[in-house]
């Protein structure tokens, strides 16, 4: 029914002749927008036969994100290889009109160069951003660090660690204790200190090795917020190197990796 | 029990000797206050043997409302014909003390000229406003426009249309397509456009005829907000004439009609 | 499991050697912090073999609180007699990390003189306040007023009374009618008056005697807010003397008494 309405209401956009026409559940697109919106307002979305890929870095160049959505994340995926500059906040507004898993259609209008977003009776014609005007993401191959330890834990446990640190400081030390095989987040405030330590059954998995670095709590919060509840998050850690957080989206058909640069220790 | 408490607690107001004593479920009165409060802070409420009637126009004279509550909407309706000037916000405060469908008693105190509002143990003595000091509503018979089309749709569908327009602009074109028998709301923003189109099973009924006018989105939102969820809303439309929105309240014992003047097209 | 994690994570605080180590459900501690936080930011908490006792007065010396938690409110209660100066807001922050009835451990670190707060993997080291720097509470024995009437009612009924008064004024008269055996709260605003009257089955108990005093509505709201839903509240009232509100916490293992000074009548 919703699909039928869509077909009827978008006849002007002629998806069949569009160089890019994809349909995905609203929830999948919302997660993608949340993940990217944690760091940037607009981004370059690359479409090719394998799916959609986005790489972006926040304006302060402290954190980067890499998002992949395979074609399996889409109900329809009919694209010629191309890159679109997408304004995330406006796309988020449109997606807020969808309920649950309503199918959302995105079609590039070859004449207007706009993105036609259609969901259950609603047609939204969105002006795109010139991809060349968007900051180039870093070459991720250059960011291939030697991680010393890795941890897999529930999204909720990671959130607790970050909330705990946030009570006392703007900076948190994130690390792994080799002895005890524990994931440890600590923060030192002006008067109070906090330490959140997870080991054994509180972790999904750990490859322990002594490692710790200092990170901005505000960034940790920003990266933690879009992680879907119930997810398992994989962390790769080292000493004075970026923290890597990765998790799956779209029932495994999508993959997100955040990298967060360490702060220089102030104490 | 609540009723007994009420009888006991309001003995001073002597409802039996009051020239006006009505009792209605809190939910009914709250809806009425919401409907009127969308446009005015105070209003003239006319009581007669058929029930209660209010006509009012917002200070900018862009929108008007006509509300009727039949005696069937009340548990008790014992009034001499008269008009009260009611401060809506204070009445809303008192009604917020009632839960669910608590019976609320309104009695005019013949000595103090105040309205005694009683609900479950609470007596609120409300100073009324001089009805002559309240802006005269327009003579609604003069506002008898030649509507070209009419649409009946679910309140939720209308809300979606208005929310969609609100994403891109302060003005929305509301109209009917004769061919396709569709209800269409469109809005043009600085960069993006939006179109919400409903036809067939997405509408309850339509009497299609080419018609469209431009309206303020802020007013559409204000008029849409008090419409009870699950209601059917009847729209009467034309070209460059006011939009009429009407719906039932109080399980059919009440009727609301809003009229919203068109804006002059700016593009 | 949570307990096991706790034992492991707090090994550095050596609770066994601490002069003070208690464990209580998070909900119990949260209620205590809410009750005290209504009046003060920090307070002197006295521990002895019978349990925990706090007496405090708000900075404007208008209201005081007395809180007792018996040892039965604790899962573990192993203390040497002493008084701690506790910063309530920071303790509230830590407790917000606990879910439901998670056991929370408080242990005084004999070396750092800090309070180690531990809950499910989280260790928070809290700097205490010098008890001598905290305002001395009044000697409560001097505040032994001759109350004339007493009322027991549900927390929700008291809240309604206070909300009702708050609609029209900053001051409310709280009293008891001897005839009619009723608890009555009245308030007079610039234009409107309100009266909330409870008697018979709307009260749990009443020992009626003519009595009434005027109180600040803001203070009544502050004292009412932390009262746990579903509680019975005992009021002791007189004429131009403080109002006493008392209620149980921690399933009867704790007791709270607030005393609120009357305002001089302004009308």
UniProtKB/TrEMBL annotation, chains A, B, C:
Q: Residues annotated as region Disordered?
A: 1-21
The alphabetical list of record keywords is: DNA replication, DNA-binding
Q: Where is the composition biased (Basic and acidic residues)?
A: 1-19
Xref: CDD domains:
PCNA
Q: Name one GO molecular function term.
A: DNA binding
Gene Ontology biological-process annotations: DNA replication; regulation of DNA replication
Q: Enumerate the InterPro entries for this protein.
A: DNA_clamp_sf, Pr_cel_nuc_antig, Pr_cel_nuc_antig_N
Q: Which domain of life is it from?
A: Archaea
Presence of keyword Acetylation: no
The segment(s) forming the Proliferating cell nuclear antigen PCNA N-terminal domain are 26-110
Do you know which Gene3D superfamilies this protein is assigned to?
3.70.10.10
Subunit structure, briefly?
A: Homotrimer. The subunits circularize to form a toroid; DNA passes through its center. Replication factor C (RFC) is required to load the toroid on the DNA.
For this chain, the family text in UniProt reads:
Belongs to the PCNA family.
Question: What function does this protein fulfil?
Answer: Sliding clamp subunit that acts as a moving platform for DNA processing. Responsible for tethering the catalytic subunit of DNA polymerase and other proteins to DNA during high-speed replication.
Output this protein's name.
DNA polymerase sliding clamp
């Amino acid at each position: 029914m919703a699909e039928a309405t869509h077909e009827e209401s978008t006849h002007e956009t002629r998806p069949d002749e569009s160089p890019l026409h994809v349909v995905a559940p609203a929830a999948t697109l919302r997660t993608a927008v949340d993940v990217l919106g944690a760091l940037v307002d607009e981004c370059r979305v690359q479409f090719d036969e394998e799916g959609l890929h986005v790489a972006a870095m926040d304006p302060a160049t402290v954190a980067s994100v890499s998002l992949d959505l395979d074609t399996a994340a889409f109900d329809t995926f009919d694209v010629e290889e191309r890159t679109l500059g997408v304004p995330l906040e406006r796309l988020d507004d449109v997606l807020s009109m969808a309920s649950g898993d309503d199918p959302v259609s995105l079609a590039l209008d070859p004449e207007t160069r706009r993105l036609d977003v259609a969901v259950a009776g609603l047609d939204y014609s969105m002006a795109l951003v010139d991809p060349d005007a968007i900051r180039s993401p870093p070459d991720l191959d250059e960011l291939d660090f030697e991680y010393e330890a890795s941890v897999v834990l529930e999204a909720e446990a990671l959130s607790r660690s970050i909330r705990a640190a946030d009570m006392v400081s703007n900076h948190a030390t994130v690390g792994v204790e080799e002895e005890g095989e524990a994931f440890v987040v600590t923060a030192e405030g002006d008067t109070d200190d906090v330490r959140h330590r997870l080991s054994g059954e509180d972790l999904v998995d750990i490859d322990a090795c002594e490692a710790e670095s200092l990170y901005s709590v505000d960034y940790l919060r920003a990266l933690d917020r879009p992680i879907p509840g119930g997810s398992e998050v994989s962390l790769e850690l080292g000493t004075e190197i970026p923290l890597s957080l990765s998790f799956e989206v779209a029932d495994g058909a999508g993959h997100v990796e955040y990298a967060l640069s360490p702060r220089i220790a102030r104490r």
